[in-house]
Request: fold
Amino acid sequence: MIVPATNLRPKGSSTGRTLFRSLILALLFGAVAWCVYVAQQISEVANQDEAQQADAIAVFGAAEYRGHPSPTFHFRLDHAVDLYRMKIAPIVITLGGGSDKDSGNTEGAVGRDYLLAHGIPFSDIIAETRSTDTEQQVRRLAAIARENNLRHIVVVSDGTHLFRIRELCRDAGLDVYTSPRATVGHISSYDLAMRYVHEIVSYTALKLHMDIGWPRRWLAGEEEL
Reply:
């Protein structure tokens, strides 16, 4: 009797493929669940303003153009000015360095000049000018806080940026209150989705201790760190 060829297939091969497919599905499910969780955390922080009495207000840098703040940075600085005038804190810290393309300008210095032009005294401003990304800005902020005995800090940035900032600050031992800058104009669904993707990728890389600088910079565009 001739045995059909289909019955000659090794059982182990079929079992292996089934286990492999199950593993892939489990990984995909886990990845989707993680992304949904992080997106929920980003949204929750983005939609609440925790600004309250503190020792300082820290403005996270964005791009500067020939000595002038980019629109994103401009709105963050305006929010910091409003908080300062409300007497939320007596000191404003501007964060952000520059690159070879910036002709010697830095985000921290440009932010300081903007605050000076809006009536905040030089003695009430600390400009940090060496950091190049969010992680470095947090490390420099932690150093400034230690040097100046600043215990509570209101951190200002775009709403979608603040969850990652808050988690980085907590890891650095900082006690922070998040305060998103105002949303000006219409943000398309695509742009908002890309902001979330950038933050999810960045936060996931942070938790996995991965360095994925170039895709994060591409997702961030020119203005947001």
User: Anything to note?
Assistant: The chain has a mean pLDDT of 88.
